[in-house]
Amino acid sequence: MRHRNKGRKLGRTSTHRRAMFSNMVASLVQHGRIETTEAKAKELRSIADKTISWGVSIQALITKGKEKLTPVEQAKVVHAYRMARRVVKDEEALSKLFTDLGPHFATRPGGYTRILKTRVRKGDAAPMAFVELVGVERAKAA
Fold it and tell me: How many other C-beta atoms lie within 10 A of the C-beta of residue 136?
């Protein structure tokens, strides 16, 4: 029985899963849309939403402007950066999370990602899906 065991193991060790989802969240933040298997997409959704919510949580403090932040407010900003940094290791993706995605999703109460089922992978017949950020234009493919 799987009582109180949340999440899928996906045939990987815990460190491999953590690194894989870290890379996937960074790619999702940078590109706006990624394709993966349905099982990974369903797990990624919760991790990505939690990470984006850290970017959203400090928008009221950041938009305060030139006013000096109180020590408590500064601590909240630093805490949000550190918590997001635990998941997103890429500097470019982390800055985009707080400068672009945070303000974009500031008025949205949650549900920052969407899963679109696409096809069956030819090699192993795995069901594939797109994970994309809601209402964000994707970066142009090079």
Answer: 18
Enter the tokens of residue 125: 């017949």
Question: How many distinct structural domains can be found in the chain?
Answer: 1
Q: How many helices (H) and strands (E) does the chain have?
A: 6, 3
List, for residues 77-117, the tens digit of each pLDDT value. 999 999 999 999 999 999 999 999 999 999 999 999 999 99
Cross-strand bridge partners of residue 120: 127
Q: Which residue has the tokens 């984006």?
A: 52
Q: How far apart are CA 18 and CA 36, in angstroms?
A: 16
Question: Whole-angstrom Cα distance, residue 121 to residue 67?
Answer: 53
Query: Position of tokens 């949580």?
Result: 57
48 phi, psi to nearest 5 deg: -65, -40
Calpha distance 88→71 (Å, rounded) = 25
Q: What CATH number is attached to the domain comprising 72?
A: 3.90.1030.10
> Residue 93 domain-assigned?
yes
Query: E strand or H helix at 33, and its extent?
Result: strand 33-37
